[in-house]
Amino acid sequence: MDRRDALKRMGLGLAAVAMAGIAPRTHAAILKDRAKDKKRLVFYFTATGNSLFVARQFSDNPLSIPQEVKKGSQVFEADEIGFVFPDYASAAPVIVQEFLAKNTFKASYLFAIVTFGNASVMVAEWVRDYAKEKGVNFNYINSILMVDNYLPVFDMNEQMKIDKHVDESLAKLLEDVGAQKNYVQAADLGFFNQDMLKGMQDQHFSMTADRLLELKKDRCVECMTCEKVCPHKNFSLGNDGLQFAGKCEYCLACVHACPQKALTLKSNWPGAPGERNPEARYRNPNVSLMDIIKSNRQ
Ligand SMILES: Cc1cc2nc3c(=O)[nH]c(=O)nc-3n(C[C@H](O)[C@H](O)[C@H](O)COP(=O)(O)O)c2cc1C
């Protein structure tokens, strides 16, 4: 068959597809179909929905880490196992660290996607090294830029205006994982150095609810949304109204979800972060409050 005949046949093929009302399949759709033949487990942790939104692109039924940790030590087996979680000071949240350390993951392809808001610095290498120490050897670790929910530094109203090209980045990540690419994003320290990061991580990893949070009592209506979204059940109702105490993930789920904006970050002790804009809060627009509650409620 010469080139002209081949083109003619291709044209007839496309015309037949168009007449039958069938859209030509995209590369992404083909990769998704191929992935269906495999068993893929995806675990996620989220405070404001970014990581849940991303996890849902990789699995129809991603599993919440705060729900899984309640079940104790488990052995998970699949063709592919993935993890999606936020970057906290260029490291994984403590609850994710513990989940990786205390369970067994058996899969020929292990991947992690870290959602971040401003600078992922060396998070992929950090996750690789931490997980390796715990016996989990990742094939692929990459990050995706989204709204930065870190209230000490960012005003959510400003963050939500920025186009962070999430769709384009997601398409690339889906393609990489669909093709079982081997890759770990290289560190880019920029203005940071290892000591600075270590200092920030130590502060994050040792946070407690009473050190971090302040309640505007006149605003609180005791709806207990904070308690429902907290992965550590740090909130309760006492004689004196809402109370909080305990080891804190520093995820800010409670602060972002409070419908009264009654929770804020303390700024009255050395190192207390304070807030950029206490009246601006965030939740990923594709994720509901009920989704966050189902993910984190203890
Ligand atoms: C305690 C804390 C620390 C964070 N540290 C970083 C950071 O070092 N770099 C960064 O780019 N984003 C950082 N972020 C932003 C989050 O990683 C980002 O907004 C993420 O997408 C939130 O995911 P989620 O909506 O699933 O909770 C931090 C957020 C919090 C709450």
Give a short summary of the structure.
It contains 13 helices and 12 strands.
What does this molecule look like?
This protein is α/β, with parallel strands linked by helices and 298 residues long. It folds into 2 domains: 27-201, 3-Layer(aba) Sandwich (Rossmann fold), CATH 3.40.50.360; 208-296, 2-Layer Sandwich (Alpha-Beta Plaits). The protein has helices spanning 3-19, 27-36, 50-58, 65-69, 94-102, 123-133, 156-159, 166-178, 194-205, 209-212, 225-229, 253-257, 289-296; strands at 40-44, 63-64, 75-77, 80-86, 104-106, 109-116, 140-145, 183-184, 213-215, 235-238, 241-244, 263-265. The chain has a 6-stranded parallel sheet, sandwiched between helices. The longest helix is centred in the N-terminal third of the chain and has 17 residues, at 3-19. The protein is globular and about 55 Å long. Mean pLDDT is 91; it is low at 10-23. Bound molecules: flavin mononucleotide. Flavin mononucleotide (FMN) binds at residues 46-51, 86-90, 115-120, 146-150, 204, 250-252, 284. Flavin mononucleotide is lined by residues 46-51, 86-90, 115-120, 146-150, 204, 250-252, 284.
Topology overview:
Blueprint: H1 3-19, H2 27-36, E1 40-44, H3 50-58, E2 63-64, H4 65-69, E3 75-77, E4 80-86, H5 94-102, E5 104-106, E6 109-116, H6 123-133, E7 140-145, H7 156-159, H8 166-178, E8 183-184, H9 194-205, H10 209-212, E9 213-215, H11 225-229, E10 235-238, E11 241-244, H12 253-257, E12 263-265, H13 289-296
Parallel strand pairs: 1-2, 1-4, 3-5, 4-6, 6-7, 7-8
Antiparallel strand pairs: 9-12, 10-11
Helix pairs in contact: 2-8
Bound molecules: flavin mononucleotide.
Flavin mononucleotide is lined by residues 46-51, 86-90, 115-120, 146-150, 204, 250-252, 284.
